[in-house]
């Protein structure tokens, strides 16, 4: 009886696994079609400079505007795109689109805004990343100093000399580098002093409970102090509350990104947000 049940269980699981891989394959095909049909869109979340009270730029965040499923958030398709390798052409499109948009905003009189794009591991590992970036910047006619690339701690592991060369080659052309989701990786901190980085983004998980949680507050305080002593700018992600903003401002955090100011917005709405400006004085009138 037990044996029979085992066999049934096996059949049951293997059917489930089969369904899963079928789903994955059809998702992959759908992503391929989405790229061909231009179904991806970028939304832009403002990054506010606490020193000047101005919108310094934004982070470009991808969405899939699917005719069948509506607006699909990145967590539902980025992992499959990464596993299938499709993230590479999708990522190229993101860089090209972000550069075109940066120039379009400048032409609309918004000034030169720094646009940050997320770079996935497989994309970062491609030998032609520098070429992809240069082509996108040139095709858009953009000032290369206004492109920022968000990478993660995990990508800083591997042959150090070639990683440093890769970063320097791209930086020498103009773009800057930011470490995304800082504090959630398992890499050593020593790369921070050796690699040519410009910005740290403190992960949202550390920001959520400040200033109430003493441990998170201590971690955030230490990250900001360390980053500043290494000449890195600090961005706090996921700021939703005034209390968080005030705490971060008191610690000298440079830039705020979060729902407190705005969710990621379509390009046109972002332009309106920049035009309206941010009232930081009344926000932090302490
Ligand atoms: P990320 O790069 O850390 O981006 C920040 C995420 O936090 C965004 O989610 C943003 O909407 C969300 N966020 C910002 N402020 C707040 C806040 O105050 N509260 C809350 N609850 N959330 C906030 P989103 O757009 O869903 O993107 C999720 C992740 O997907 C990104 O995390 C990034 O890892 C990935 N991603 C997005 N766009 C791209 C892309 O073009 N390429 C690649 N490779 N990955 C991308
Ligand atoms: Mg990011
Ligand atoms: Mg982030
Ligand atoms: Mg994050």
TrEMBL record:
Domain EAL: 24-278
Protein's name according to its UniProt entry: cyclic-guanylate-specific phosphodiesterase
Parent-record interval covered: 309 to 594 of 594
